[in-house]
Amino acid sequence: MRIAIVGCGQLSRMMALAGLPLGIQFSFIHDDKSQNRDCVQGLGIIEYSPDKIKSTNSYDTKAIAQLYQALGQPDCISVEKEQVDLALLQALADFCPIYPCVAAIKACQHRGEEKQLLTDLAIPTSPYFYNNGAKQAVQTLGYPVMAKSCTEGYDGKNQWLIKTPSDAVQFDKLQIEDYIIEKFIEFDKEISLISVRSQSGQIKHYSLTENHHQQGMLTHSIAPALNIPDSVKLQAQHYMESLLNQLEYVGILAIEFFVVGDSLMVNELAPRVHNSGHWTQLGSITCQFENHIRALAGLNLGSTEQIAVTGMFNLIGTKQPPFDALTQNSKLYWYNKAPKAKRKLGHINFIAENQQLVKQQMIQLADANLSLTVHH
Amino acid sequence: MRIAIVGCGQLSRMMALAGLPLGIQFSFIHDDKSQNRDCVQGLGIIEYSPDKIKSTNSYDTKAIAQLYQALGQPDCISVEKEQVDLALLQALADFCPIYPCVAAIKACQHRGEEKQLLTDLAIPTSPYFYNNGAKQAVQTLGYPVMAKSCTEGYDGKNQWLIKTPSDAVQFDKLQIEDYIIEKFIEFDKEISLISVRSQSGQIKHYSLTENHHQQGMLTHSIAPALNIPDSVKLQAQHYMESLLNQLEYVGILAIEFFVVGDSLMVNELAPRVHNSGHWTQLGSITCQFENHIRALAGLNLGSTEQIAVTGMFNLIGTKQPPFDALTQNSKLYWYNKAPKAKRKLGHINFIAENQQLVKQQMIQLADANLSLTVHH
């Protein structure tokens, strides 16, 4: 069996490393020539996606057939990111299934469509306006609001916090195309739920994870999230199941939530394995990467049971694999990327007896300067 | 960091798959042209070992230097089997450390030397004679005895059970060179202990594992082994520590024991990751493969704590990866080898609430005909 993945980053790397032990082979579609492919070097076939025909902005059928051959005729194709060219996926869908399906990726790759989907399913999300000008939006939403590019944002990029009328004027002057403006949510906590749906419709949830960001980038996660009532957990799982079933989803889906009091509000969706699920590599019987692969391959899903309280610490800008930081209860995952400030270059997972001890270890890692982003 | 391993089989494969996530790169020395290299294809550099100079039975210095370069100048070299050419290792030792050291591999690759080492350390093993003729040996040992080639035996090959005077005459007629004859032990159970020693001398033990063989081949293991008194466990760990420290060992060492009543007798040693330790991939915080790599790389060892009762079922002669056999509590490891009867082609690990349930699942796997060797 062979699985192809669009993208050559660390998520593709970790999917392949989870699937290779099962005897599954991998191919990677290098769809972004500005991106380095060091992460997946040696783990399978790497092929550039063909150029689009300029006049029609579509793909030549022959070129797609050649790509499919060059990829080693994969049994299915998946993605490591939502920002992929849907026309490419649609063209490849003539040759093998795409998991999750193109419609699911489409719904998650555009913040406007994502908001609409959530609204249709009665899943709470912050009130928003689409392409309506900041001046207009704040009349209903008040200050502060967040403006976000519909398609360009990740790791906090292409987002604008608008706190004052002059911020609003400034934003409107930028003439951003395709954006939403949403009410800024004063949340108590950011959590995420990572779940997986098999081809037969079986669903498994991981524990809720508490996430901490700095400048829009995830710095660390703790699972399970502390002080979340069971009712909230069940609510999150219910929202997840609505989405997975509505989208006839196959694979891992991540939902980021804001916790406000005892209620949840969806921040965003990711139709793929997710940074806030990296802890599952150590803390769960089956990690998110293996379960994504199992779902794609039509296998029974693996148990998502958690084995211990787990922390995940992103190595952001860390120049070398920090081997000295490894303890008997921690594991290192290094991505083989060229070091650069503010770049995620690896992560450390560790288990501990309770969340308090996990937090202490986070502080130690930060103090050891393993990340350019030090946070207490 | 780069690690080179002598051998291109499934153990090399699983060491690489355990080390790649840490950003460590791998090279493999293909020292046996009759062996296929499918197991490690794509996981690193593969280089043939140079031919020996016929007149001196040694290696040309230039050829060894070229090999070391071609391997990508590894930081250290290890082995996936004890039957490696010591002259090759000794020549490579001029370029980087060999782990475990050549003396340790030498001691374990020859049954006569192994017996001597055990005797020197007062570690019980069955009484034996070296190259002394079966007729002579049975005068002291009585019947039955086992004759074993000193260097050629694995998976029950090159072993002869001698039950009668005519068997003894038959064996002596074979004119085997370099063998031992040992008393046949009527054991209650076969168990093994897998342990790891770091460069700084730290030692960690995995749980004792109960092993089941058929025709000399391991078919399945259960960990922890049932009904082993703590005193026996401590005794096994004590023997292990004597050996590890005596040999200044770095990496994983496996000891196979016979349990006879409340006492232990060493069956054999393996200076490498071992089939009876495969269960650690699912059942332990850190698997034997990762801990071997951590030891080689000079890192802190990972926890060997067991997370659940675990079974390991060898897929012997199974033609296809048995994806249908996967349950939520099991994992498949497939080696990508060409299928052949009596060949180990993969294994399944699974966890269960207790040893009884593990045994039931073993029987189900055997009934599903996943192995040519069916055992109840």
Structural description of this entry:
- Two copies of one chain form a homodimer.
- Chain A has helices at residues 10-19, 61-70, 86-92, 102-109, 111-120, 134-141, 165-174, 230-246, 280-283, 288-296, 355-367, and strands at 2-6, 25-30, 45-48, 76-79, 128-130, 145-149, 159-162, 179-183, 189-197, 203-205, 209-214, 217-223, 251-260, 263-270, 309-316, 330-334, 344-352.
- Chain A has 376 residues and is α+β, with helices and mostly antiparallel strands.
- Chain A has three domains: 2-98, Rossmann fold (3-Layer(aba) Sandwich); 127-183, Dna Ligase, domain 1; 189-367, ATP-grasp fold, B domain (D-amino Acid Aminotransferase, Chain A, domain 1).
- In chain A, strands 9, 10, 11, 12, 13, 14, 15, 16 and 17 form a nine-stranded antiparallel β-sheet that branches. In chain A, strands 3-2-1-4 form a four-stranded parallel β-sheet, with helices on one face. In chain A, strands 5-8-6-7 form a four-stranded antiparallel β-sheet, with helices on both faces.
- Chain A starts with a strand and ends in a 9-residue tail after the last helix.
- The model of chain A is unreliable at 372-376 (pLDDT under 50).
- Chains A and B meet through strand 16 of A and strand 16 of B.
